[in-house]
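Narrative of activities, Objective 1.

The group set out to show that a structural description can be obtained from nothing but a protein's sequence at a throughput compatible with the screening campaign. Below is one input-output pair from the validation batch, recorded exactly as produced.
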Amino acid sequence: MCPHIHVDMANCALGFRLALRLSTVLWSIKSILVLLLFSRTQATRLYSSEDPLTILTSHTLKETLHNSSSAWLVQFYSSWCGHCIQYSPTWKALAGDVKGPDRELQTVRQLMVNFLQNHTREDWPVGCPPLEPTRSENILSLLGQKSELYTAIIIEDEDSYVGREVILDLMVYEGLRVTRALSSDRAFLENLGVKALPSVYLLHPNGSHSLVDVQKRLRFFFSSYLKLLPAVHRKQAKSAHDLVHAGPGVAEVWKEFDKSKVYMADLESGLHYLLRVELASHQTLEGEELKTFKDFVTVVAKLFPGRPSVVKLLETLLEWLVSLPLERIPYNAILDLVNNKMRISGLFLSDRLQWVGCQGSLPELRGYPCSLWTLFHTLTVQAAQRPDALANTGLEEDPLAVLQTMRRYIGMFFGCQECGQNFEEMAKESLSQVQSLDQAVLWLWRKHNQVNSRLAGTLSEDPRFPKAQWPTPDLCPACHEERDGLHVWNEENVLSFLKQHYTGANISPKYASSTVPETGGAAEPAAQGDRGPPPARNRDRTLPGHALSSNALPSREKQQWVQGRAGEIGGGGGAEARPGVTFLGLGFSSVDMSLCVLLYASSCLFLMLMFFFFRMRSKRWKVRHSRPYV
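Output recorded for this entry:
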């Protein structure tokens, strides 16, 4: 088999995906054809400097492609390969077609679409949807008919490419059929009520039909709307589908939620899993691990926009860590404080996993990774909105403080090592370019979308919640624009959206644990998002929902162990209430204090008795051994 990579237009998926990926990376194209050879002598056998392409070697590859403003299409080949020799004229011809300053990526993409549409019908790829327009009478006959699938009709002018691009965008999705119709039949447009082009007319499985209402009539808006329809999800290989659904499942009660809201239950469940499960793999914290954990608790305690009971727990944990002059701290001591074994009044963190905005269609999907992303977004936004929150912590006046703390925590404690390595690579690549707190918010947003793009279509993707570029057009229409036919982000509007999405007023208390055990004091409302800032400190809140990876998802065995452990040490539940006080940052009950006083008094009494005993014995010894003087 020849060691080569080439564009085979007979493969519809490969050809158009390549065009789309090129079109989403760069704006213009200076040279799209490149030959990578193992030596210059081989290059002369198939290609020469007179050809409209660039010849690269192992020495010039990196310096030519790295940080280039152009998009490059690279062919790896062997000069002795028969197929490569036969393919070289096609490669040269393609190089001539796209070379030149007037070749925009949009033009290249449209050329590929034309090539696909004009492909020989006898050799049409099975997996490639038809791109020809559908006759109006065929579409009208479908109105009112029930079907197992959605049918979306893109109605457009003859010279428009939106319909064909949307068809190819949705090619890897199931539960939906996309076709296109031309606007030349005016009676057809009047029948459907179409007044602006391009438009999308949607036929629902139940037989109803209507025009699709989108903010902007652009390809990205149409594709995003259709991908988010119920029962529409990315196709999965049969083996992957069987693997995901293998084994007995446990029915979960589905919680209805608003995707424009952040849920306190997700944030608190993430903290519970982080402190009681993920950290439990480290029996002792010392050295760099201890410093990283202290910094992480500092950031969370100062910035977490939570309920008073959770905030007090974080602040008590921080005070305890800072006040202890120990180089090693056992995890069990941290767990005892998290579970409030010392009965400090008003301190409580629920030990239940209650996913709402982060719930998945299966227990092993989304969950903790989603909540961790949510927590990270929340902290970066809170730091940007309250720049003085980290004062006197050693982390103030550093726009990278939150991101660097997250980076170190993920590398040392996050259960998925591969995810930690990927995050570290992203941080090394561009984290040093962050110069302000607002840039930190946008950096994390970009990297989250980058992770979503990489994990789309993998086993960790929830079919009910496909990994998409966030925020989607229905959440933030102003965040999306089109320039030269290509989708671009309006980052100024994205920043405004993130700051609004992660504020305290947008955190919903729905589904959050509504009571605090008697040992922790009186009950409190489920969340304070609708009541303004917390009374103790000025705080805010927020979250979206996407995933890091499913490799670190909680197992039910771990959940049961955590609940059992919490019950053993009295961390949650209805034990008898005892009044609590705070002493030097540590919690002691009145019984504990009484025992300390009793032990102190007993020790003093014992020392006094020993003193008088040896004093009397010394006097008796002197009298017995004394000699009278003559």
